[in-house]
Structure formats: C-alpha cells, structure tokens
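Structure, all three chains, one model.
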Amino acid sequence: MKKKVIATLLTVAMTALVLAGCGSNKGSAPVSGDTQNVQEQAGGEESAADPAEDAADAADETSGEVTIKLFSSLPDRKNGQGLVEQMIIDEYMAANSNVTIEVEALDEEAYKTKFKAYAMDGMPDVVSIWGQPSFLDEVLDAGVLAELNEDDYAEYSFIAGSLDGFKKDDKLYGLPRNTDIMLFYYNQKMFADNGWEVPATYDDLMALCTDIQAAGFTPVAMDGGDGWPMACFLTDILVQVAGIDYADIVSNAVATGDFGAPEIQQATQILVDSANAGMFQVGYDSQDYGTTMNLFTNGQAAMYCMGSWDCSMALNEDIAPEIRENIRAFTMPVVSGGKGGANDIAAWNGGGYAVSANSQVKDEAVKFLNYMYQPDKLSKYGWENGVGLSAQDQTAYLTGSETELQKQVMDILKNATSISGTPINDCGPSAFKTAIENEIQGVSNGSTSVEDFLAAIGAACE
Amino acid sequence: MKKLYSNKPVIFSLVLPGILVFLFAVLAPICLSVYYGFTDYSGMGEAHLVGFDNYVKLVHDSAFGRSLLNSLFLAIGFICIQHPIAIIVAAVLDKLQGKAEGVFRCIYFIPNVISVAVIAYLWKFIYNPDFGLLNNVLSAFGYQGKINWLSQQNAIWSVLVVLIWHGFGWGMLIYYTGIKNIDPVLYEAASIDGAGWWTTFFRITLPLMKPVIQINVTMAIISALKQMETVYLLTNGGPNNSTQFAANYLYQQAFKAFKYGYGNAIGVVFIIICILATVTLNTIFRDKQKA
Amino acid sequence: MKEKENKIGKVVLWIVLIAVAAIQLFPLIWLVDFSLGSSNEMFTNGLLIIPEKIRWDNYVKAFVDGNFLHYLRNSILINTLAVILVVIISIMAAFACQRMKWKLNGFVSTLLVLGMMIPIHATLLPNYKIYSALHLTDTVWALLIPYVAFSMPQGMFLMTGFIQALPKELEEAAVMDGCGIYRIVFQIVTPLLKPSIATVAIMTFLNNWNEFMMASTYLSTPTWKTLPFSVLEFTGEYSSNYAVQFAVMALTAAPAVIVYVILNKHITKGVAMGAVKG
C-alpha cells in the first residue's frame, strides 16, 4: 500500500520536475553513490579494531573522496563540548585529506525534533544520541542505528556500566560521551560577599533562597521553558527522598502508569513549594537554555541548576572573569526525612554518538567514531577544555591545572555512594517524555495540581 | 479564432504545469495525510491501520481543544483590537496630505517585511522579565515589579500583541486603500451638511468600507487558524500548552512524541476546519452583500 | 471656535500617528541600539544605551559566522525562481481558464484556487515523507515546490481577474495576423499584465521571503538554507553573547527593510491591489 502510494507520487513528481525544469542545477548533489561504493570496498575489508592505525591507513588511501555528515546537538562550536567536537573533526580531516565532514548542529530541543524526522527516512552518517529509553527505545526498534562491535572498545577505558544505556539485547549501538551530574552552580564571590553558605539540607536551601531574594537577586536560574531541566531537578529531589530506591520506584511507575508513590508525590510537592516560594527567576517556565544560563553568568542569579556539562562556563571567554573564575558547584542537599544521603547523586551517562545503519559511508563513519573515542581525543580534550566528566577514565589526563570547578565535580563523583541513572523524564517512551516536560511547567507554576500532574504523566505511559 | 481558442492540446499544455503543482504539492500530501491519519505509524518502522482511533483520541485531546480555542482568541483579538485601531489610523492618515502620509505609511508597514524568525526572537527579548524592553519601559514609569509576560496566564496575550504588532501595517494598508477609493464627493457633501469628523467616519467611511472590512475579517480568522511560526519560536506552545496551535501541535506530535500517524490525523482535521471556516465566511459575507 | 477645534483635532491626529509609529519602530531601534554594545550592557535598566564603545565587530561576527552572504544568495535565488514560476504558471493557467473555450475551465480554475484554503503547515508531515522518498530533501526543490504551490493559487486568482479585465480586441487582431496561442499569451497578453505581474511577484515574495518552517524541516546542510537561518543558528552558537545575537537579527532584517524603504511606493501599491482583490 505504502509503496504504491509512493510509486504513484514518484511518477507524478518526475513529470513535474521535467516540466518545471528551469535551468537551475539540482541543488547540492550528494557525493555520487559510485565513489562511495568504491571507497566502502576499499576500506571495508579492514577491521576497525585499531582506530589509530585505521586513521593512518585512511590517510594513505586517496582512492576516493568521502563525505561524512555529522548531525550534532552542540551548536556552540567555540566553547565547551562543541569546541571539542570541532577540534577532533578538524584534526581528523587534516589527517585524512580525502574525508570531508559536514556538520549540522542544532540545540538539543530542535535537534531531537529533527532527529526524529531524519529517523523516518535516512539519517546523517554520525549522529548525537542519548542512551535513555525515551530517546533510544523507539529508535532502536526501528533499526536506524548501526550495531557496533563492543570488543573494539575494550581498550577505550569506558567506565563500568556506562555502555548499558546504549545497548539493546546485548548489542551495542552507541557510545556515551559524558558522565552527567546534576549540579547547583553558584557564584562563590556573591555568596562570600553576602555571607551566604552552601546549604546542607533542603530547608537550608529554602532559607538561603529567601535571603538571596531579599538581597535583590534571583536565587536559582532554572531553564523551565524546555521542561527537561526541571524534570532533572525533580529527579534530583526524588533521589534525596527515595535514596537508592529511586530507579525501582520510577521504573515501576512507568511500567504501571501509576505515579502515586508517596516518594514521587513528596518530591513533586517539594518542587511546587520551591517554585512557589520564588526559588526560580520570574518567567522561568518560558525561558530557554541560553537566557537562563546568561542570567547566572551575568550575575543576576546566585545559583544555576544544570548538568555538569556546563562546567566549561569556567573557561568561557564570553563570561566576565570575575564571574567565571568564581563558579563553584554543589549537589542537591539532603531532604529531611528522605532516604538519600549527601553522596547519593543524580547522575547518568546520557549523551553520546552513534552511526546510522543506512549510512552509505558506514565504515568511514565508524572509523571516525572510533577516532573520536580514542581516549586521548574526546575524553582528553574535553577535560582540557573544562567540560565535565567524560564516560571514560580520565585519570591519565589530570594535569593539576584544572579549574576549581572541575576538581569539585571530580570529587563529587569520587565520593558518590550511589548514582541514580536515567532521569525520570527519560525513563519512559517519548510520548511520556513529551507529556512530563509539558506538564511539569503547569504543576510548578501552580496551574495544575500535583494529583492531576501525576495522573497526566501516568496516562502518557500506556 | 474559435478553433484556435478551443484547441485541446494547447489548453492542456497551458494548464498542465499548474495542475501538476497542485497534484504533487497539495493533493498528494493531503491524500497521504488521510492515509497516515488512519494508522499508528510512529515515524519509523511499520504502520498499522487502526481505523478511527486517532480521531477518537483527538476529540478527547484537551491540548488540541486548547489550540482551537487559542485560534478563536487570536481571531477575536485581531477583530476587536487590531482592526479598529487600523481603521482609525487609516482614516486619520487619509486626512494628512503630502510627504508625511507616505512616511507614516512606510513606517507602519516595516515590521511586516521582517522575518518571523527575527520578530519572534526580538520579542523574546522584549518580554524578558529581567532585562526586557517592556519591563524597562514600565520601570521608567515607576513600576518596579517584574512582570512575567510569558507566564501561563499572560502568554497568549503576549503572542497576540506580537501578531498585532507584526501584522498591523498590512491591515492598515488595506483599509487605507479602501478609504482612498471612497468618492471624495461624498465627503464634500457631508462637510457641506456640517457633519464633523466622527459623524463622517461612522456615516460614510465605515459603511462604504464594508467589503474591505469583510475581506480583512476573513483574512484575520484564517491567519489566526493557520498560526504557527511565531508561536513555534516564541513559546513553542508553552507553558503547558497554553499557547498551543493546531499547526504547532501536529508538528510536535509527529516529530517530538513519535506519533506521526496522530500528527497526520490532526493535520486532516486542521485542513477540514480551515476549509469550513473559509467557505462559511464567504457564504455569510456573500449573502449579506446580496441583501 | 471652529478654527480652534480644528487645531486641537490636528494635534490629536498627529499624536495618534506618532504614537503608533513609535510603537511600530521602537523595538527595532532598541534592537539596533543594543546590537552595537556589549552583552553586559543588556542588563542595564535604561530604555536605550549609549554603548561605551561602538562594537562593529558584533556585525563582523554576524556577517562572517552567520554565513550571511551565502544565505542571502540562497534566499534571493529561491525567491526569484519561485516568483518566476508562479507568474508563468498562473498566467498560462489563468489564460486557459478565462479565455479559452473548454468544458472543464470552471472546474480547473476552482481547483487551482482551492489551494488558498489549505494551511501550508498541514502538508509539512506528508511532504517530508514524499520528499525524502524522492530524495528531494536538502535540495532546492524541497523549498521551491511548496513555495510555488502555495503562492500559485493566489497568483492564479489575481491573474484571472486581471485577464478578465483586458480588452479582447488586441487578441482578435493578433489572431487575424496569424499568431498562435503561445505567442498571444507570452507576447501580447503578458506585456499588458505588467502591473498585475508586479502585484503577484510582490505578494509571492512577501509570502516566501520570511518562511522558515519548511526550510528548517526539509533542509539539513547549509547549501540551500535561507536567511532566517542566520538567526536560528546564531542563537545556539552565540547563546552567551546577546549583542552578537542582536547584530545578526538586525542584519537579517536589513535587506528586506532596505528594499522595502526604497521601493515603498511600488510595494504598497502592489500589496493594496493584491490584498483588496484577494
């Protein structure tokens, strides 16, 4: 049925094209299929076991031009993670003169939308992915990502368990880039000047927020317009409330569609009370990522709630030195009566990369992927550029000249007694993710009750 | 002459490009939409026919209901706020002579030629509670609070303001043209009878502008229904669907929630609503003109 | 007495006009003003700033990193092509339906104009599917086809009206001289339609110049991306630098505004003609 429809359309279209032909050439013709096939045959024989050697080999092969399309969720190519990605791309292209890597970069929300559009029909060769059910389940079911050979990565020193989110039926489909930790970034100087202290309990945090407001600042900058950071925040609270039971409670709720567990109710109530008390900036529920971060980096907000990937703020030249040098971080303080301890943290291996199953330059793409993940590339450069923690062992690259912020984050991870795993919004299907990220705005700003919120997200699980 | 003008192959060759464009770019996608609207297709993998499931779900979908209400809100906003101002400004402008007239007309139309992408981002900044233009203007008048213009309660109004601002010049220009087409003799007669400006405006200008007003009202309602781009960039339907619109919602459902089939069902209903609205409006106005 | 009233009336009139003009223009002035400062100056409380130092380099960044010339070229190229196609197709079809004698002329004419009612965004999903099946995504066709398709009904509608108003005598004379239909359409009728063509062209341009939903869905590489993308890409790329974001917005808006101000009289006339008829 579907084929027939498309075939008919094809005929109509062909005629239309011929008739409407107007002298313009047919746009950017992709690299011709023939060349690619030749290249694939040439490179296809070799195993991808030793990426460094492969890269060298590829440089020798001048048999054909290869264009690898990289679809990235890092639009800022001059700072942090995006810079690291671009550095590696430039290096790879310099070492392999026949390879051109075209980057299309969109910010996370737009990226995910377009990724799904691509997933329908033909993806770029190398893509950013998230090793979480909300993102990966449907993608893997559709078989659009290429299987990777796990044995290839034995020497890549991935942290134990970090590949789990990227597997289905024990087959590996992607590689994690980061270890993400939910953090409160704070402005150390602002804290010292006003006599504020890092809160040890959630009640302290609430009291601190009152003080900060009284001083005329925004306590916490929160990217509520996007929905997911607030869901991560909720995850963070839930980890303090439920302790190590977090993962079980959430997966149980997603499976049954019943989010009535007292822990979830309590955590949501805490979120609502906090928002109600003015913990976040005015208009947090409609502001985007950049606006929120800028509120903090321009000294309007005393704290900023975001994942550890934003540690690169400390090295961002666009941020005034008196602020960027004073950025420090702490994790969610303990909730009184909660089962979580100070060292139970909300952290996960989320973002990463994968190769498209239907890529016409699959071997080249895998080769590039492996090159990126050589321990002295993503992981090392990331560390040197102040990006948070990678999903690989970074101890070899400690220079002692890291930013204070990096050292803090490293200690947080080192001292962690438990790690939460996937944040709540990413634990269910994508319809659930869409629902919770929309509804959480309503519950936090008081227009939806906690009960209605939990019922609505439960309904989206079926 | 007659033979030449009824030469079938020639006629065919003249209308063929138009028909092909219509078939390929309008009819074919609609047919495909109808088909996918009956499936549970997620966007990837297999599609299964599920009958009217999507449509049943749509009836109960509060976010979709909300987006239709929002369209209605916009349409009323255009008609009750934008158009009265546009008519009055057009009438006032008509009284001006010489260069100033052209200058004002030009200024009013400028926002219209600017890309929605720019407009939406610009207004995002204008609405920013911390450093946005609007709160700064208020604080210049002595109001110190921070108003959250894009909050759940305010957002739809804020969207309306942006659209009114963006489209004002267009509506004004059409009214202005309509006024210019009114026979000056009528005004002279009114002035001899001693009618003031307001009387002239209500007795002569408005009644004679009826057809133009009808066109503008139709366009306002249709454009309120079709609203997508400004909202997509300004609020993306949020907070919590409070600024959701049909076009944006179907896009979100298909490309964000992996419900391509459902998105297409929304698209089909959306098309039907647009056609119904256009036909109804045209019928109402045509009957009125006859009467 | 009367005179005094008149004076007051004049003052009120000017106040209204200037107030509306200020509302329409001030956001744009604000935009340009802040685009010349530094990002930190955003957070001052005044309405406008006098930048400590005028930073033209904001515009240099916007111009270079925003791929400005490339996107501008694409925008111009795609829009020009769309305009040409719309004009030619609608003249041909309108002539056939309006002037020539055949049974289905009314039906075809209605069919083609019907497209005006269809919301363009409802075709986003199915068209994406069609274009990717035909490998048209990320080519100029992915934009050109919908742009032409959704401007054609209006063009067709306007052209039908205009052709109807043309006197038939010229055509009759041409037939006497032995002209074929194609020559009549393109050499006799088309030149007579000049003002109408201008109207259709302006309407088509205004409709499509600022469009980006199609562009952002169907395109992936920068090869054919159009001007609005400068803004979209920049807000991600320079998310922490507001001043440069402002510069890129101002720069993106500039070509259309400049062209409009220069051709203001013609465009106004075209829009007025098109909109009142349409």
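The mean pLDDT of chain C is 87.
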